[in-house]
Write a structure and sequence with these properties.
alpha+beta, 6-stranded antiparallel beta sheet, binds flavin-adenine dinucleotide
Amino acid sequence: MSFPLSDIPLGPKTTLGVGGPARYFWEVASEDELAQAVRWAKARKLALRVLGGGSNVVVADAGFSGLVIKVGLLGVEASGADPIRVRVGAGEPWHPFVLGRVAEKQQGLECLAGIPGSVGATPIQNVGAYGQDVSETITLVEAFDIERECMRTFDNRELTFGYRDSFFKSRAPDAFIVTRVHFLLTPGAPPALRYAELEREAQRLRETQRLGETHAGEGLSVADVCNLVLELRRKKSMSVDARDENHRSCGSFFMNPRVPEALFARVVRELPEVTVPHHVEAGGIVKLPAAWLIEQAGLTKGIRRGPVGLSTRHSLALVCHDGANSDHVLGFAHEVRNAVFEKFGIALEPEPVFWGFGSSGGLPPHPV
Ligand SMILES: Cc1cc2nc3c(=O)[nH]c(=O)nc-3n(C[C@H](O)[C@H](O)[C@H](O)COP(=O)(O)OP(=O)(O)OC[C@H]3O[C@@H](n4cnc5c(N)ncnc54)[C@H](O)[C@@H]3O)c2cc1C
C-alpha cells in the first residue's frame, strides 16, 4: 500500500538538479499501485507526469502542479537459452541492468552501458549510443493505458521506433506508463562495432591484446566493447559521476538535426574551407552532428553564462553549476539554439522534456 506525498522537491530527483516541487508525488512498486495512483489523479483532475531516473527532464522553478508518479517496478526475469528473453521492471536502473547482461556474455546492449536512467524510459526515446539502440532488442513493452485504465502490450513494430523517437514519444505522449520491457539478447554473439570512434578504439585494443598474446586468435568480447564504451563516455563526461565537474546535465541537450539536402548545401557554402561531418540518409535527408554545429556557431566547450554553460568535454551537454535554476538553463538553451539558427538556418530540437513551464512548454519549437 502506498500513498501520495505533497510538495516534494523535484530538482534533486533529476540529473540537472534544478526545478521546484511536485504538488503531489507518488512512488509505485506494482501495477496495482500504479492503477491506484492514476485513478487518484484523474478523480482530482490533476495533470500527470511519469518520472524514471530524471536524466532527461527539465523542471521549471515553479515546480509541477499535478501528480508525478515515480515508477519503481523492479525485477529481471530471464527465460530461454539462445536467444535469451529478459523481462525487466521499468524501475530497474538501466546501467546496472546492462552490466548484468554483459557479465552473462549476452549480446545486444553492450554499447548502451553508462547511460543513466531507468529501463522503463528506454523505449520512450529509443535510447541509443555508439551505433546501437534499444529498438534492436526490445520485443515487447507492457504499459498502463491512462485513459482506459488497463494494461496494454506493444510489440516492436507497433512501437514505430525512430531516431530518439517512438510511438510513446511522438504519437501518444503522456498516454501510457511503461511497466515492463522485454529484450531479446544473444549469448556469445560478437559485439556491435558500427561506430567509427568505437571501431578505432577496438582496433587499438586488438593490437594491444595481440602484442600481449592475450585472447590470441579471438575477437573482442561484449565485455571488451562495453568497457571501451564506458571509457569513451567517461572522457566526454557522458556518464553521471558526482566527482566530475560536468555531472549536472541531461546528456545531449539537442538532437542531431536531419535536414534536406538544400540546407546541408547551405552549411557547406557557409564553411568552404571545412569538411562538414554528415551522414546521408534515405530520401535526400542529411544528418548533422549538433555538437559540431554548436561549436561552429562560436560556442565552445566550457563556455559559461553565470551558473550554466557547456560541458568542458562535450559541446552538446548543457551543464548546471552552483546557483543554477531552470531560467538559466532555458535562457542558455535559447542562446545556443539561436546561434546555430542564425549561422546555418537550422533549428535544433531539444532532447529532454520540460515540465511545469505552462503554455510555452519550455523551449518553443523554433528559435525566437
Ligand atoms: C550524462 C547523460 C548521458 C546520457 N547519454 C545518453 C545517450 O547516450 N543516449 C540516449 O539515448 N540518452 C542519453 N541520455 C538521456 C537519458 O539518460 C535517457 O533518455 C534515459 O533513458 C532517461 O531515463 P530516465 O529514467 O532518467 O527518464 P526520465 O528523465 O525520468 O524521463 C524521461 C522521459 O521519459 C518518460 N518516462 C520515464 N519513465 C517512464 C515510464 N516508465 N513510462 C512512461 N514514460 C516514462 C518521462 O515521463 C519523460 O518524458 C543521457 C543523460 C545523461 C544525464
